[in-house]
């Protein structure tokens, strides 16, 4: 049977869904230990001044909604233009990237994954949705930014497919923050996406979140441990098992980052 190669298809993210996500990132739950609001304000400095001093959630939501409704109307044509532009640029490397990720993770794309989806969005943060094979992209990205984020998010889809085979008892909720499996999944792209099989297609120095890049354990960079597991792996399953055992050992330290 011919190997399935998914096609990444771009669309414009609906305003309502975009707004709900942005509101979530601007007003993080106390259960989650990361505050993403600064990333939103980097893209929309005027919004910060509008929300300064406003503590009531209902009022904040009203201000946010009105703000992004106006931005969406103003930028709708640009969102659609970027959707078409991203599609054109991505199509040049789609098959090569999909096959390289499959080869690195040693996991074929599921037959149901005929298409995966990238939504061009007002959101400066680019979340992924594992079950529906969808991720968001900020509309102000250039082509290089789009490609690096797309590769990163696509790697999550096939990485978690492999994870479920190696650790079949994992619960879906553990793929998201604040679970330890999520933390590991956000460290791993620094390791696997700098593999020469990706670099041959798209030359870029991939990194992980700064909190992981800058963190040390016993005087040694956290990600260097994972890099050594990868460089000395028997196969990708071996890399996953060693990495998982390692982060479990230091769970308290990692979750405190």
Describe the structure.
The protein has twelve helices and six strands. It has 257 residues and is an alpha/beta fold. It has helices at residues 15-26, 37-43, 45-51, 57-90, 94-105, 143-166, 180-192, 196-199, 210-213, 222-231, 236-249, 251-255; strands spanning 7-12, 115-121, 128-129, 134-138, 216-217, 220-221. The strands form two sheets. A four-stranded mixed beta sheet has the order 1-2-4-3. A two-stranded antiparallel ribbon has the order 5-6.
Short overview:
The chain is α/β, with parallel strands linked by helices. The chain is built from twelve helices and six strands.
Provide the descriptors you would attach to this structure in a database record:
alpha/beta, two-stranded antiparallel ribbon, 12 helices, 6 strands, 57% helix, 9% strand
Percentage of residues assigned to helices: 55-70%
Residue fraction in strands: 5-15%
Spatial strand order of the main sheet: 1-2-4-3
Overall residue-averaged pLDDT value: 95
Order of helices and strands: EHHHHHEEEHHHHEEHHH
Main sheet characteristics: 4 strands, mixed
**Cα gyration radius (Å):** 19 Å
Number of helices: 12
Task: Count the E strands.
Answer: 6
**Multimeric status of the protein:** single chain
List unreliable stretches of 5+ residues. none
Spatial shape: globular
Structural class: alpha/beta
Span between N and C termini?
Answer: 45 Å
């Amino acid at each position: 049977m011919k190997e399935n190669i998914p096609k990444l298809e771009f669309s414009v993210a609906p305003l309502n869904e975009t707004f709900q996500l942005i509101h979530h990132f601007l007003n993080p739950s106390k259960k989650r230990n990361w505050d993403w609001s600064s990333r939103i304000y980097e893209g929309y400095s005027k919004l910060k001044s509008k929300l300064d001093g406003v503590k009531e959630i209902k009022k904040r939501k009203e201000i946010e909604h009105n703000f992004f409704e106006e931005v969406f109307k103003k930028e709708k044509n640009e969102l659609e233009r970027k959707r078409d532009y991203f599609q054109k640029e991505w199509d040049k490397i789609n098959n090569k990237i999909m096959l390289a990720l499959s080869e690195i993770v040693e996991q074929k794309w599921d037959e149901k994954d005929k298409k995966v989806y990238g939504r061009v969005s007002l959101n400066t943060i680019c979340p992924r949705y594992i079950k529906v094979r969808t991720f968001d992209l900020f509309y102000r990205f250039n082509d290089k930014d789009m490609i690096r984020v797309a590769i990163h998010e696509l790697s999550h889809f096939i990485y978690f497919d492999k994870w479920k085979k190696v650790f079949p008892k994992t619960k879906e909720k553990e793929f998201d923050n604040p679970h330890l499996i999520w933390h590991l999944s956000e460290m791993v792209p620094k390791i696997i996406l700098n593999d020469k099989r990706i670099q041959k297609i798209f030359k870029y120095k991939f990194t992980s979140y700064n909190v992981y890049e800058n963190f040390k354990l016993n005087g040694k960079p956290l990600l260097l441990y994972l890099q050594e597991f990868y460089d000395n792996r028997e196969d990708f399953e071996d890399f996953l098992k060693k990495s998982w055992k390692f982060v479990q050992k230091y769970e308290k330290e990692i979750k405190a980052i």
